[in-house]
Amino acid sequence: MNLPTTYSTQKHSVYNIDLNSYQRLQSGSHHEPIQSSTGSSSLSEISFYDINYTTNERKLKIKCPTIFPSFLKPKPAKQILHGLSGIFRTGMHAIMGSTGCGKSSLLDVLAHRKDHRGLSGHIFVDGSPAPSSFKYMVGYVVQDDIIFETLTVRENLMFSANIRLPRNVSHVERAERVAQIISDLGLESCANTLIGTDFIRGVSGGERRRACIGMELVLAPKIFFLDEPTTGLDAATARKVMKCLSNLAKQGRTIIFSIHQPRYSIFKLFDTITLLSEGEMLYHGPARNVLDYFSHQGYLCEPHDNPADFVIDVLIDAKENSDKMEKLKLAYENSSMCEYVMNRRKQQFIDESFQIRTGRKSVKLKQFIWKEFYYVCQRTLKNTFRNPSLILSQIVVSIILGLLVGLVFFDLKKTTDPGVQNRLGVIFVIVVTQIFSTLTALEPLIKERALFIHENASGYYRTITFFCAKFLCDILLIRVIVSILFSLIVYFMTGLERDIGKFGVFLITIFMASLFGSSMCLLVAATIRLFSVSLIIVILIFLIMMLFSGFLIALKSVFSWLSWLQWVSAFRYATNMLTMSEFRNIDFCLVNSTNICPLPGSQVLHNVGLDYTTNWDLWKNFFGLSMMTVGLFLLAYIQLLRIKKTK
Question: Which of 19, 341, 421, 600 is most solvent-facing, going by the fewest CB within 10 Å?
Fold first, then answer.
């Protein structure tokens, strides 16, 4: 495809884009900026210079590398980005290249979402060094649609507005802004529809993607980053999403996104494109000039060929041939596109010291913590009661287990045989079922992990806010409901001692055992992101604790170097409490003579090695179980703080 040339000069035998034309495009583009209706901050230009990024930069010191296991040896450092420089202003800016070329890495670096280890270079915003709070001032939409699935589109947008907008913005203004975003993104027809879960049919993929974009638009950012916004969408939906972004660019926003191979109807929406190959920049300029540029490098686009497919083929060809790669790299370095960027670089570095002294302060506006807590709790409660997999599964499992245990151990007799054995058996089964039943909460916790990382990194809320809301409005609430239901069913079906005090001990033990299981699941979910691995680890921990509960084997017969595990066994503390509560002040009679009761419950406690003479003997087990539970929740909170929020 031959287009009218726009080249007027020649430098080192390489044709160059006319500098004045490139400057006009960078200052305006074919999207004429208009005043944003949202009245956001003045951020509109982002420039970057000498961006280098290397992975696996930290290396372990191995004294004997020849005998060290190969799978434990550190991977060699790999440079992902090589000295990239460029400028983005108002308009649509696509970062393109073949798989593994560094598109997403560059996008994450510019959005301040990349780990600083192995990263070097300079980023300027409106001519000033980017503040540390830059990532809280821009919009960032990840490739996967991370959004609360049990809320409607409007509720998700209102949550973002309530949690992220400054305190001086009234509730009416927040609602008006959300309504405007819904209108701008064409979400009126699905505004009151749930996003959708595995059990609930919700909005379409395109509507879901636009809802994610809308949550970031609440802040009315002038700079907007998107990672592969068309991934997983059909052609019509992808076109609709990109048209929405184009309309946002016309409102004066700088839209920067990575994209793989867009169709032509999408490609023609771009103002500039940045082409990367093996982390090297081979083009950074107007999209409409890219075919002419590469035609002067010896690459001709065939008639009716998609320009996006054409440039990707050029990049793949260069990747497979080092000589062609060097030729294209040299051509770009000698182009007026690169010259313009380097001239801006010199000017901004001259002014940098002055800008650092007088530049904007890095301030991140936050809600009052109590208000932040209120909105996160509100959303958590809605999710708890709208998500069948979160609450119904646990309630149903609790009822089924309660009925099963109640039927198997129905109406226990106070006889020496089999009454004693059956009572000990039901206590062990009750504790095991209650702790293991908490595994149903593991998958929802892991799913919410990705949402927490994204929202916390974007400045939605503090970690302590999420943790407290999760504990009070989800874990604690469900554990209370489940424990009460299970206790009412099991206690009276099995015929345990009809005493209000003993029932109170039974209920509080069941609750604490259930809470302990939840705390372990939360800690593992905060540490490991794969459900299968998390499930195996939690089950392994529970099994080890169960072995050292004292019910399966006499702890005195265990190796001394292993016996210490009994002190970290929640199963042991819970079964000890229930056993002491049930067997104190009870006598067991002969099977054929209910008037002759030769075996007191205290003798049974003595036989199993439990001290029972004081109340402290009972409550020290509750104290141990409580301390383990509190410790696990504390570790879970610390792990939430430590979760890597960058890529």
Answer: 421
